[in-house]
Write a structure and sequence with these properties.
alpha+beta; Alpha-Beta Plaits; two-stranded antiparallel sheet; 8 strands
Length: 231
């Protein structure tokens, strides 16, 4: 009689109960592990703020440099006062202020007398010394709020605030006297120069170019008068 073959129970397939338990354990470990943040590093906002501060500083330095260049372009290097460009800009601004607030001012244009013979006889160094003395004299005779400029060569301009026409003409005469009193020693001798001053009164109807022309014309009239007075 034949023996019956033993029937073995089939092995559990992979992925059965034990496989499911393994996958569950892996999933639990993954959930428990700390997640990596995809957000930018905490230092990034600080870097941006630092960059902004640096850019603001560079912009401020650039603006300061531009203002310095403007000031240099509008300054007479020899006399350290405004040149024509700088004075005209200041005069234009002042006239705008006068028109807006009904203020008053006077424009004086001053031309030196007997200056060319000093330059011709003693050289430009002597002429520069005279010009520096003139600028210093003007500065000592006007207020800090007034404006002094060199229009070119031996011609100067002064802007005087809050003066009546009578006071402005009195100030012009005072400036002539102060410059007439200057003495210079060159080549073993003493020389002097002088100044003729023209006056234009500024009001709400004034324009910059017209005011300069009026003061300049008045200066030439005054120069002719002074020549007649010295004969």
């Amino acid at each position: 009689m034949k023996k019956k073959a033993r029937v073995r129970a089939p092995k559990a397939a992979k992925g059965g109960k034990s496989g499911a338990a393994g996958r569950k354990a892996v999933l639990m470990r993954a959930q428990a592990a700390p997640r990596r943040s995809a957000a930018p590093k905490a230092a990034a906002p600080d870097d941006a703020k630092s960059a902004m501060r640096r850019l603001r500083q560079e912009l401020a330095e650039a603006r300061a440099e531009i203002e310095q260049l403007k000031a240099t372009a509008e300054t007479d290097f020899l006399l350290d006062i405004l040149n024509r460009r700088g004075f005209e800009r200041e005069l234009s601004r002042s006239i705008a202020f006068i028109k807006r607030y009904s203020a008053s001012a006077a424009l004086l244009v001053l031309d030196l007398d007997r200056f060319k013979p000093i330059n011709d006889a003693f050289g430009h160094a002597a002429g520069d010394m005279v010009l520096k003395a003139i600028a210093q004299t003007l500065a000592s005779e006007v207020r800090a709020s007034d404006v002094i400029g060199r229009l070119g060569g031996d011609e100067f301009a002064v802007l005087l605030w809050n003066l009546s026409e009578t006071d402005a003409r009195a100030k012009a005469a005072l400036l002539e006297q102060a410059i007439d009193g200057l003495r210079f020693s060159f080549g073993g001798g003493t020389v002097q120069t002088g100044a003729s001053v023209g006056v234009a009164i500024l009001d709400i109807h004034s324009e910059m170019r017209t005011a300069l022309e009026q003061a300049d014309s008045a200066m030439y009239v005054r120069k002719a008068q002074r020549r007649h007075e010295t004969r």
